[in-house]
Amino acid sequence: MAISKKFYLILILGSLAALGPFSIDMYLPGFDAIAQDLNTTVPKVSLSLSGFFIGISFGQLLYGPLLDKFGRKKPLYIGLVLYIAASVACLAVKDINQLIILRFVQAIGSCATAVASVAMVRDLFSVKESPKVFSSLMLVIAISPMLAPTAGGYLIAAYGWPSVFLFLAVMAALMLAAVVFFLPESFSPDPDYSLKPSPIIKSFLGVIVEPQFYTYALVSALCFAGLFTYVAASPVAFMNIYGVSKTGYGWIFALLSVAFIGSSQVNSLLLRWFSSKSIVKWALLCQTIFSIAFLIAAFYDMLDLYSTISFIALFLACLGLINPNASALSLAPFFKNAGSASALMGAIQMGLGALASVLVSFFPEDSVLPMPLIMTVVVTTALLIHTVGSKKLSLS
Questions:
Q1: Do residues 358 and 365 lie in contact, with contact meaning Cβ atoms separated by under 8 Å?
Q2: Please, what is the Cα angle at 111 between 106 and 112, to 5 degrees?
Q3: Pair 222, 291: CB distance under 8 Å
Q4: Which of 38, 90, 159, 278 could hold 163 in an S-S bridge, CB 3.0 to 4.6 Å?
Q5: Taking a C-beta distance cutoff of 8 angstroms, is the pair 27, 164 a contact?
Q6: Boundaries of each Major facilitator superfamily (MFS) profile domain copy (predicted)?
Q7: Exposure letters 336-356 (e unless 16+ CB within 10 A, then b)
């Protein structure tokens, strides 16, 4: 594959994969403004974030079979049109319940881009190339935490929080044009693939019983739950507890994303000398150690703004190493049903992310402790699953 063609493919696929993260991050600086306009509280507004996670988790299971039945592009059209419609509808919400519902619908649309982009990496690139391609996708995806909250902060300050959803609608429309005119169809529709419940369930079961899939998919999902914990808790931690402004919060988000971007690109270099399995093993161990240290510091009230940022940066740096390798290892055993495998992996990620973000909303608004507590629980669980699963894989 020519370098220029590969570059444009990765750019488009990365942009599609980044639509969900952009949708999550961009409106975070507006939580206070949304709460005031809709006569509710910031924890209630955070439930709209949880609704988004739940929508992505559910929607990916829907799109997986559609991608394997109709090819990759037609489901993408459906998802992007639905996303645009929901984004425009968010401009006119009158209460928080309407926003929660529309964010759920918006997520159903965006998860088409998440599933399709991952499945198309498996379609277009070899198993050996996939970890490096996923690292390149991480570069595009990781730009969203740099740009989204910062841009959202300025948009909200100038035009109010509804302007964020108008921006997202326009961005999705541009992506739809790129898919129509520039993205090739990477998978021929399978007329024999049944959309009846029984064959779909059988296909998902065929994926989930594969030890390599469930080991690395669960590891990736649990570590991502730590990321979503940070996303859900950060408006309270940085703006309410540490007194950071909306634009300052955006810049902190951008700074922290550098750790994620940097480590995901270092991963491409490490793959020259180390296997994906080895990188996941050591990065997960380091992430667990950092999370426990973060929890201890929070428990003994030793944290300030800068130490909190430092611990989160270390967590994200480890995630940048874990995720591309765990994703590639999860999908490696599959080809024909890569869409279903991608959907199931994404559903597990977003389902656990939604659960973590909901848990954050139940904690009081005057403590940073919930963030490291949930992070530590999920990554230590991931380490345990990896340890047991690796032994099983080595014996098989």
A1: no
A2: 110
A3: no
A4: 159
A5: yes
A6: 9-396
A7: ebbbbbbbbbbbbbbbbbbbb
